[in-house]
Amino acid sequence: MTSDALKVPAVALGTWAWGDDGRPGDGHFGSRWSASGLREVAERARSNGFTLWDTAAVYGMGRSETALAQALAGQDRGAYLLSTKFTPQIAGDGDDPVADMLEQSLARMGTDHVDLLWVHNPADVARWTPPLIPLLRSGRVRHVGVSNHTVEQLALADRLLGEAGFRVEAVQNHFSLLHRDPERAGLLDHCREHDVRFFAYMVLEQGALTGRYGPARPLPEGSGRAAAYNGVLHRLQPLTERMGAIGEDRGASAAEVAIAWALAKGTTPIVGVTKAAHVDGLARAREMRLTAPEIAELETLADAADVDTRGWWERGTR
């Protein structure tokens, strides 16, 4: 077994957007971030106790990992946790593609280990899980998680690791007010029963649940998220307006209400941060306590919106 159990802060910091290069049509988020701005984000996160950073080799094909390393430069390595991913779909054809991709990630991030390594997509669980074992034994990987896996795929990965004395300690799947499949499929219950930390990504649905965007103010044209959400923003208005009203009563935003909802579900939200003010919002969300009637009302409004926000990469997963 890993010597120490996985311990993480209430909210993890996502850097998917840090991989964008800012050119229209060549990024999912359609924005460009300055190195100095991201360093300010990292410092604000440190001062607020947000210490877990989530990235992936596939985010900008390494650009996110590189930008993260630059933002964290100067901070003591023991003061933060690094989470990155092995993505089978971009695996090389060497003798050990998992180790190869990890070594490239370590080089980009300027470190000798990652605290949490995810198998990004299930692909072939029996093939890609065993190569994690020597990485755990070496200490280059401290903990293992799986992302976009079903309950059955998670159980298989856990059994394969268990044969060597390790286990899957975390799951990272899409979970938001608009996408509650992990709850409905029993994945959240499975994680609770087996002491597996559930990380919820796309809690804000790439900005569509922040209350900032609507039919009159769509997401940036030419970006991947605009193509996914702009056509349904009008259907989300009753939900985002109610989130805004709930937040206003607490001196918070609609986005912070969405994060507080995910926390109330017992998950660890992974929230993208690109501005220091975003970190301040996470601090407010961390302290927010939604009532049971508020949670039920938000879920009813989300169901009424009747939108499918599954990403292309998760078709067929729960």
UniProtKB/TrEMBL annotation:
It comes from the Bacteria. CDD domains: AKR_unchar. Signal peptide: none annotated. Residues 11-301 form the NADP-dependent oxidoreductase domain. Pfam families: Aldo_ket_red. This is Aldo/keto reductase.
